[in-house]
């Protein structure tokens, strides 16, 4: 089954400047579609392009990168990006994409299930 887009979904899990373990019931959800229909996710070259697109979209969904001097905001931003990228990579079910993301497909799938 060809994939035309992967969806990035982020439930806003930030409140009063601190990350929560789970989103609140009133959390805002943002969905962004990342086009991958033109890519072969089973090839390293295609997976690299997909991972770059996913990461750029996660950066946008998680908000502007925090000033590097604000360590708490920077850590929250990086945690957000990592969570969104991991969940999106898991939804692609591509071992090549998971490996480029630094995780096995089993690790990526279990991380996404936990979120």
Morphology call = globular
Strand order of the largest sheet: 1-4
According to DSSP, the number of beta strands is: 4
| Alpha-carbon distance between the two ends | 25 Å
Mean pLDDT: 75
Class per helix and strand makeup: alpha+beta
**How many discrete structural domains?**
1
Describe the main β-sheet briefly: 2 strands, antiparallel
- Number of separate helices: 4
Low-confidence stretches: 10-24
- Rg (C-alpha, Å): 14 Å
Percent helix range: 40-55%
- The string of secondary-structure elements, in order, is EEEEHHHH
Q: What share of residues are in beta strands?
A: 15-25%
Topology:
Layout: E1 5-11, E2 14-15, E3 18-19, E4 29-35, H1 44-62, H2 71-92, H3 95-100, H4 105-114
Antiparallel strand pairs: 1-4, 2-3
Helix pairs in contact: 1-2, 2-4
């Amino acid at each position: 089954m060809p994939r035309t887009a992967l969806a990035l979904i982020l439930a806003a899990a930030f409140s009063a400047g601190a990350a929560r373990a789970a989103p609140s019931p009133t959390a805002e959800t943002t969905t962004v579609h990342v086009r991958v229909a033109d890519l072969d996710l089973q090839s390293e070259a295609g997976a690299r392009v997909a991972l770059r697109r996913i990461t750029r979209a996660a950066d946008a969904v998680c908000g502007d990168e925090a000033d590097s001097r604000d360590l708490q905001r920077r850590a929250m931003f990086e945690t957000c990006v990592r969570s969104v990228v991991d969940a999106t990579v898991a939804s692609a079910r591509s071992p090549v994409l998971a490996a480029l993301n630094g995780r096995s497909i089993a690790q990526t799938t279990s991380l996404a299930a936990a979120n």
